């Protein structure tokens, strides 16, 4: 007998408490959580497969429940979370705490709540007479550029019977989202030559060179804002560019030897980040030559930090229609300004939708939470999914 939505929701909350207890901040390892999930699934008779990082310190995890046939559903989510450093939490971020109908803890909405729901459904999925399978796909390092998912997606495309669709469980208040922006982020390192600040002819200030590059990016950001399509469904409507970190120099009276900054460009579907940044790359190359002419040991280096593709609306999308049916969602078309792994799945040829518990407004915040009501709605989604996959 399949669990009721109420029982499934309660089981999911218990699992969420376990998942939250693992500190899976992206700078560390997620292997303790992966090992726990492997053991949980093994107890249900469900085999799992790791797709590890190159250095073996982190891993994706895949598992299939049901017959090895085409037409299955991928439930995908990331295991990593953002740091809690310096945030004023009212309770331990690594201990699930319920207050006033909310479940507090790092990752509750982004996005261990969805992982907990998928795992809570696993016993019923394993016991059901499924006609089509569910594939669990849990990734690492989403929060630092969607770095883990591509290898896992490659394995799914190569080794599994072709799934019909992918549900990425980012927080959407359990409604379907059909598109998101892409993100391209870059590290820029300017290396000059130190000298006394009164003797500028003897050195090169990395800070002064970096300012020229950052000034170009500020002007580009303002131009992108002016060029935004007024009919765009996104908010902000167009591409956005921000400089997130700047570090440079030793003292006020020393020409800076090095300046490092990082920026990100977020683009709606249809815009090419490489084309948008072509003039910036040309300026960086020109300044690199100028610096090297004065200080051969210096220069300008631009490195890709992340390059996550956008996720575009699908005409008559199979995944969106499925998610709407499972969630009881008859609302308008929706898009998200953030980047996620949906664009990567779509790029591999899978019909994809974003739908998961919680609000992105709570993500990355101190006292991050997911509402109990959202977990209950997620449990109803999973209950309907079990019934749907049991139909021939």
Could you walk me through the main structural features you see in this protein, from its secondary elements to its overall organization?
With 392 residues, this protein is of the alpha/beta class. It contains ten helices and 15 strands. The strands form four sheets. The chain has a six-stranded mixed beta sheet with strand order 1-2-6-3-7-14. Strands 10-11-9-12 form a four-stranded antiparallel beta sheet, with helices on one face. A three-stranded antiparallel beta sheet has the order 4-5-15. A hairpin with a 2-residue loop joins strand 4 and strand 5. The protein is elongated. The mean pLDDT is 97.
* Individual helix count: 10
Helices and strands, in N-to-C order?
HHEEEEEHEHEEEHEEHHEHEHEEH
Please state how the strands of the largest beta sheet are arranged side by side: 1-2-6-3-7-14
- Judged by helices, strands and strand pairing, the structural class is alpha/beta
For the largest beta-sheet, the strand count, sense and barrel status come to: 6 strands, mixed
* Low-pLDDT runs: none
N- to C-terminal separation? 18 Å
General shape: elongated
Oligomer: single chain
Can you give the helix content as a percent range? 25-40%
- Taken as a percent bin, the fraction of beta residues is 15-25%
Radius of gyration, whole Å: 23 Å
- Number of distinct beta strands: 15
Average pLDDT, rounded to a whole number, is 97
